Amino acid sequence: MVDNDSSHVRRAIEHICFLADVNRLYDEALGLYRLDVALLIAQKSQKVHFLGDSADSRIHESICLSCAV
């Protein structure tokens, strides 16, 4: 994801999470192999809440690395 677009994506995800079923959004993002978007949706839905900040940052780094390839 491009840095300039990431703030727009984050705001859009925050908005759409209020309008749609978060579980469905998460599944669709995974189905499209948009792991970066799936992570953002999971964070908004608190799906990864139990992991804590250090685990969350490791997951985010691995997703960013896999998306950059």
Computed Rg: 12 Å
How much of the sequence lies in strands comes to under 5%
Number of strands: 0
Low-confidence stretches: none
> Number of helix segments?
4
User: Could you estimate the helical fraction of the residues in percent?
Assistant: over 70%
Major sheet characteristics: none
Helical/strand content category: mainly alpha
How far apart the termini lie comes to: 12 Å
Entry keywords:
mainly alpha
Please characterize this protein's 3D structure:
The chain has 69 residues and is mainly alpha-helical. The chain has one domain (3-68). Helices cover 80% and strands 0% of the residues. The chain contains 4 helices and no strands. It has helices at 3-19, 22-31, 35-45, 52-68. The N and C termini lie close together (12 Å). The relative contact order is 0.13. The model has no long low-confidence stretch (mean pLDDT 75).
What's this entry about, in short?
The chain is an all-alpha fold and 69 residues long. The chain is built from 4 helices and no strands.
SSE topology sketch:
Blueprint: H1 3-19, H2 22-31, H3 35-45, H4 52-68
Helix pairs in contact: 1-3, 2-3
